[in-house]
Write a structure and sequence with these properties.
alpha+beta, 172 residues, elongated, 3-stranded antiparallel β-sheet, 34% strand
């Protein structure tokens, strides 16, 4: 082959013609960078979200963690369920707990054949507990049960009373 057969678009480095179909290196690098950004950006956003969530909620406590049912029994006189509810305040300030109890009769109308039936609900309030204080109350259910009842804490809420006292003392 002689040089007279070389087309007019020679490769600048070798003097040889450029092969058609060969992708330039900068295009390959650009494609790799763009694909990496498209894949890694959502991953970075998810990781950042969970990190921020953890930092914002690291000292968070749920009131239900401070509440427990110490005992659950059937009252011999009324036949209704009686729960002994205990609250140990682990909150960072004084406050009131509102505890919602659900009573269940495992024997129910079917005599133990089916699922347990509802035996009523009650609410008990523990007012103005100090930090670290423990309080206990007995709560009687409204409906008599046939067997040994189940007493369950359905929900618990906490309302700080320390902030309300501070605002009252600031008023003239």
């Amino acid at each position: 082959m002689t040089l007279s057969g070389i087309p007019s678009y020679p490769d600048q480095h070798t003097g040889m013609p450029r092969r058609p179909g060969r992708t330039p290196r900068w295009v390959v690098v650009l494609i790799v960078v763009m694909v990496s950004l498209v894949v890694l950006t959502p991953v970075a956003l998810v990781v950042g979200f969970f990190y921020a969530w953890q930092e914002n909620h690291k000292d968070m406590r749920f009131p239900s963690w401070d509440v427990s049912v110490a005992s659950c029994r059937r009252d011999a006189v009324t036949g209704g369920p009686v729960a002994e509810v205990r609250v140990t305040s682990e909150a960072k300030r004084r406050g009131s707990y509102t505890v919602y109890l659900t009573f269940r009769d495992p024997w129910g109308k079917d005599g133990g054949e089916g699922r347990s039936e509802a035996a009523g609900r009650r609410t008990v309030v523990f007012k103005d507990l100090a930090v670290g204080a423990t309080a206990t109350r007995e709560v009687a259910g409204p409906v008599p049960v046939r067997g040994r009842p189940h007493c369950v804490v359905a929900d618990a809420t906490f309302l700080s009373t320390e902030l309300a006292e501070a605002s009252k003392s600031a008023m003239p």
